[in-house]
Amino acid sequence: MLTTRSLRFTYDQKIEFQFPDIQLGVGNSLLILGESGIGKTTLLHLIAGLLEPSSGSVELMGSVLHDLSHAQLDRFRGRHIGLVFQRPHFIQALSLRENLELVQYLAGKPRDRERIREVTESLGIGQKLSVKPRRLSQGEQQRAAIALAVINRPQLILADEPTSSLDDKNCAKAASLLKEQAASTGAQLVIITHDQRLKDQFQNTMQL
Amino acid sequence: MTSRPLGTSLSLLLLTLGVGMIALLLHLDRHVQQQMTRNIRDIDMVVGAKGSPLQLILSAVYHVDAPTGNIALSEARKLKRNRLVAATIPLSYGDSHEGFRIVGTDHQYPELYQATMANGRLWEAPFEVTLGATVAHKLNLNIGDVFEGAHGLSEGGEIHGEHSYRVVGVLNRTNSVMDQLILTATESVWNVHDHGAEEEGHSKHEDHIHEHDHDEAPHAEHKGEREITAMLVKFRSPLAMVQLPRMVNEKTNMQAAVPVLEIDRLFGLMGVGVDALSAIAWVVMAVSGFSVFISLFSALKAREYEMALMRTYGASRWQLVGLVLQEGLLLIVIGFILGILFSRLGLFLVSGLLEDTYHYTFSAWAWLVEEGWLLVASLGIGLLASLIPAVRAFRVNISQTLIDA
């Protein structure tokens, strides 16, 4: 259950963003569409607790994010929120498997090789576990990024322009993979994008 | 770290140099002082020919310098009778074998260093010699072996052909100058330099004459008065320290030198050099600290994104700070270990050099308390160098970093 209430955010005391309230039930997904520069990423970071709103609140699973202490928020984010970024990023010195293990470790979860195998195989990158991320193809990198986001079975998956650098075929594939992964763990999925190609795949959309 | 081999190796190199130099200096200083004081033992005063008091000490106590000259045995004997003198040991040297000094003396000399017999016995007759442990080991000499002494103290001097020495015993290791010496009777040295003019028995006889009546009225018919090179003196009371050296220096044509004072003076002189070198070494350490700082800082800049990424996956601020500190300290510890190894290598080389030229040996593997402090200081520098990068890691703005990447 994700709820935002009258979120506002101010950049440099000049530019102010005001966001519509969001209410999302368990197992639902939401596509937020908007042009560049209207604060899409800001909204995503507010929901993820990476930014602090100037007013308003974000509530996830009964916790108001910005009432938590820094350490609690870091822990909460690690356990319950999975992030997929516009361009996939990894710890480059580590192999894909080590990246996944690190994410498990950082969330305070025990190392779970079985879960790693399960996730990477469902994403079709099970053979690439010992490869360094930069050696993966672009499509594989995108799928690896999804794997990082879902490995800890988060309650909320936040994706920021996950398809903007992909061609039509990979775009559709990425979107359905995200939906699949969210469905398999019963997570809520929020995708923020300007990519109109995704519009048809989601019933629940919101225009910023 | 491995992703920036140049910066990392520069930091390591500087650290290694700094730590290595300091550890090396600590060891050398310690070793030299230890050796020097160990060799002084119970020698309160050294009497020898006029000249540099330091040279007298270096030649008579440490056997590293040339002697200042000879003194008359009669005069030395006179001093021996002084009521403030507890014991004296005569030393006659000037010859060597393969670079090891042949010292004519009496049995009190090995006793002074608590030397015990490893094999055989002490010398009894002229031209019998007892070897120090290192001499026996290096020259591979055993009981019954025969060799000839060479004139002068360095290798390759003129060989005294007529007289050969016979090994009758080998001493146990004492870790003192004793290990480097070939000991024999004073008469041997006299005989060698009389060039066969007198026989052994005769010289012994002469010795007695000296004792009985030579002191007051020197016999003119002696072709050369009996001489020794130096005499080690032990005092009966501390009072002697004040009186005797001055008495000897003013009233006789011998010179008296007090080892403790001369060695203090020597350390004082060496201290300036050691201080200057340590100052340089500490500057190198400081620069290495700065280099670690730059290395960490630039690494962090490049990896700020990864830091932010890790925060989004649930890493806390303190975990990231720990990561940066860990990297800095790991660098420092590796540098420290390399530095210590480097210093040991240096010690090993220096020790080899000293052994060749001065026949001094020391073990290079001891661990000094000061090196513990050096480790603490290095860790301190590492902590200091990681501080600013750590604060940066703590304060990383996740949202902005993710957008900028």
Q: How would you portray this structure in words?
A:
Chain A is built from six helices and ten strands, in the order E-E-E-E-H-E-E-H-E-H-H-H-E-H-E-E. By secondary structure, chain A is of the alpha/beta class. Chain A has one domain: P-loop containing nucleotide triphosphate hydrolases (Rossmann fold, 3-Layer(aba) Sandwich), CATH 3.40.50.300. In chain A, strands 1, 2, 3, 5 and 6 form a five-stranded antiparallel beta sheet that branches. In chain A, helix 5 (138-150) packs parallel to helix 6. Chain A starts with a strand and ends with a strand. In chain A, 42% of the residues are buried. Chain B has two domains: 5-35 and 265-404, no CATH class; 45-257, no CATH class. Chain B contains twelve helices and twelve strands. In chain B, helix 1 crosses helix 10 (317-358), helix 9 runs antiparallel to helix 10 (317-358) and helix 9 packs across helix 12. At the A-B interface, helix 1, helix 2 and helix 3 of A face helix 9, helix 10 and helix 12 of B.
Considering the chains and any ligands shown, give keywords for the structure:
heterodimer, A: 208 residues, alpha/beta, Rossmann fold, 5-stranded antiparallel sheet, 5-stranded parallel sheet, 6 helices, 34% helix, 23% strand, B: 405 residues, alpha+beta, 2 domains, two-stranded antiparallel ribbon, 12 helices
Outline the secondary-structure elements:
The complex is a heterodimer of chains A (208) and B (405).
Chain A: E1 2-11, E2 15-18, E3 22-24, E4 29-33, H1 40-47, E5 55-60, E6 63-64, H2 70-80, E7 81-84, H3 96-106, H4 113-122, H5 138-150, E8 156-160, H6 168-185, E9 188-193, E10 205-207
Parallel strand pairs in A: 4-9, 4-10, 7-8, 8-9
Antiparallel strand pairs in A: 1-2, 1-3, 1-5, 5-6
Chain B: H1 5-40, E1 45-49, H2 53-60, E2 71-72, H3 73-80, E3 85-97, E4 100-105, H4 108-112, E5 117-120, E6 128-131, H5 133-139, E7 146-151, E8 159-171, E9 181-185, H6 186-194, H7 200-214, E10 227-228, E11 230-235, H8 239-251, E12 254-257, H9 259-312, H10 317-358, H11 369-395, H12 398-404
Parallel strand pairs in B: 4-9, 6-8
Antiparallel strand pairs in B: 1-11, 1-12, 2-10, 3-4, 3-7, 3-11, 5-8, 6-9, 7-8
Helix pairs in contact in B: 1-9, 1-10, 1-11, 9-10, 9-11, 9-12, 10-11
